[in-house]
Specification:
Elements: H1 13-30, H2 35-41, E1 47-48, H3 49-55, H4 61-73, E2 77-82, E3 88-93, H5 101-127
Antiparallel strand pairs: 1-3, 2-3
Length: 132
């Protein structure tokens, strides 16, 4: 939703409420510190649990397990069990996870711009002699 400028109509109460519900649903499905990182870590193929844990610095086994279950419930990840000796469990992205491609691209682009803005703001503050 764009900020209101001159000449733009305000959204109606029901439009605002619908937008709030849609964002709440999205954040429920993919929000938090780890879910999108897990999805990104699997974009180049299926991963075993320990491989994911190594890729995602700082995530505990318990949190990774819970996040994978949530992602599976929401249709983004599929758990594959290969019954051999030893039993191998792999996690892979579903076709539905591709629906996040535009979101991930937009979020990554915004994150890079935001990082540069913060870095340049800090740099400007130091140059001006302002203590941070």
């Amino acid at each position: 939703m764009k900020r209101l400028g001159s000449g733009q109509e305000r959204p109606t109460h029901s439009q605002c409420k619908a937008s709030l519900l849609a964002v709440a649903d999205a954040l429920y499905a993919i929000g938090g510190k780890w879910k999108l990182r897990i999805i990104i870590a699997m974009t180049d193929g299926a991963k075993r649990f320990n491989e994911l844990q190594r890729l995602l610095d700082g995530i505990s086994a318990k949190v990774l397990s819970n996040e994978l279950k949530d992602l599976e419930l929401n249709g983004f990840v599929k758990r594959n069990v290969f019954t051999g000796t030893p039993v191998v469990v792999e996690y892979e992205l579903t076709e539905y996870s591709g629906s996040l491609d535009e979101v991930l691209k937009a979020l990554g682009d915004w994150g890079a711009r935001h990082r540069e803005k913060v870095k340049s703001s800090l740099h400007s503050s130091v140059e001006e002699g302002v203590s941070v």
